[in-house]
Amino acid sequence: MPHKSRKRRKEYKKNWVKKNKNKQKSYNQKYRQKIKDFYKEIKENSFCVLCDEADVIDFHHIKDKEFSIYSGVKAGVSVSKLKEELKKTISCCPSCHRKIHLGLLNRNARAKYEKILIEFGVDYRYLPKEDLENNKENGFSNIHNDPPKFSQKKSQKKILPHINEDGTIR
């Protein structure tokens, strides 16, 4: 029967941990290994939904991100919570993941991404039509409605030598 006073509960737990240190350590190791095995299995059986690459996979959150999948695995979040969080994500390769965040998806990938957004119930139609028409010429579209900026400060010249002073790429 649990102790009603907080002080007695604390003492009981402290004594139990001293007596069962190896047992608790073994349990924690098995628990963490179970989570790591689940994560490894998910990564091995996933592929990029935009370009079908399966070598390296990231998880892009579409809705209500509580935590990143990797940090959840490292923190020891339960498998059930990981499954709930995975339902809010899509698997994509690092290249496509960056393109999503920069708004540089090509037409085919953008069409796939828009279908996925519709499945998740996200309204993606907030882009002005002029931007879509202008970007069709070069094959790129901007999901986030703000073009990537290549401006630089004087202190960035050494860090970004491939960018001219006017912001254009060399």
Short description:
It is built from seven helices and four strands. The chain has helices at 6-19, 21-44, 69-75, 79-86, 94-102, 107-120, 129-136; strands at residues 58-61, 89-92, 105-106, 140-141.
The unreliable regions are 126-163
Q: Going across the major beta sheet, what is the strand order?
A: 1-2
Strand content: 5-15%
Report the mean per-residue pLDDT as an integer.
76
Structural class call reads mainly alpha
Number of domains: 1
Quick tags:
about 5% strand, mainly alpha, about 170 residues, about 50% helix, two-stranded antiparallel ribbon, 4 strands
Describe the structure.
It is built from 7 helices and 4 strands, in the order ααβααβαβααβ. It has helices at residues 6-19, 21-44, 69-75, 79-86, 94-102, 107-120, 129-136, and strands at residues 58-61, 89-92, 105-106, 140-141. The radius of gyration is 24 Å and the shape is elongated.
